[in-house]
Write the structure tokens for this entry.
Amino acid sequence: MARKPTFPAAIAALALMLSACGDDDNGGDGGSGNDENGTVEAADAGGNEDWPDTLEFISIPSEDSISLVEEYGPLLERFEEELDVSINDTQVTSYSAVIEALGAGQADIANFGPFSYVLAADTAGAVPVAVAIDGPEEPASYVSYLVTMDDRADLNGIEDLEGQRVCFVDEVSTSGRLYPLAGMMEAGLDEDAGDYEPVWSGGHDSSVRSVINDDCDVGFVYDTMFDVQLSDETDGMKVIWESEDIPSAPFAASGDLPETMVAAMQEIMLEDFNTDVLAEAGHCDNPEPGDDEANDCSALIPGGAQWGYIEATDDVFDGIRAVCDITEAEACDPD
């Protein structure tokens, strides 16, 4: 592939798209969009004769080992009730397996990382439905951190990684591989030349713990995992680099599903599935976004997000495609 200009320049347009995405109407006005029989208006408008009776949902488990059923159960139950379908859920161990299942017609809906979504869209026909955010005015983006131990006085930036053991998550992780690889290339580090030793941890939490256990000198991890989910384990650690903004992970559907059905799913996620509406409907007590146990409505939102969903469009992820052009990462071209 032809090399693009520098990493920051290539994703400048992405920052603008993310900003615009955060300003979209997020359906947080409490309207459910349901008719009196409990089925979404989108279904009635477009007809549902061609809708399947069963959907296959596939996902990798969350980083903190919450089960798939526990994390996505409330949303899947809402789909079953309002779309009049049964949903089978399957847990796999990697985003690559999710992509394969979607491409083979063995999955209908899935959650993705941003990079794995791009691969699924470009190779398996996935279409974005919605992205989860932490608040109605919060951006639909996050960043990758490079972390190490406080006592590593020799490590203060991404440019200091020559000769170090570097924990990545896996080949198709956006914040655990793709954006870090671009940052390291910007710093003049060449993996093929042996400038550092890549280590594959298999998970963001595992990258952090590998650094703590001295199996890696540094590790890449997404911000919320480090700042919130593992906050009780990260005393004595420091952040020495962070990436440019990355678009948030989308919930996606197979392009083979009827468009009316995908639209109905999106309507449920945007209008019915945020903490304000869930509290108003009596499903929980505290609509205030947050990660505390008292924020019981946030606990119903999958993927660690604290509020709800906004619309996702494919062009928001063009910045990731640009980073693929920069890095020429093997995972960007699975064929």
Residues 180 and 243 are 7 Å apart (CA to CA). Confidence is low (pLDDT under 50) at residues 1-40, 42-46. Residues 7-139+247-332 form a domain with the D-Maltodextrin-Binding Protein; domain 2 fold (CATH 3.40.190.10).
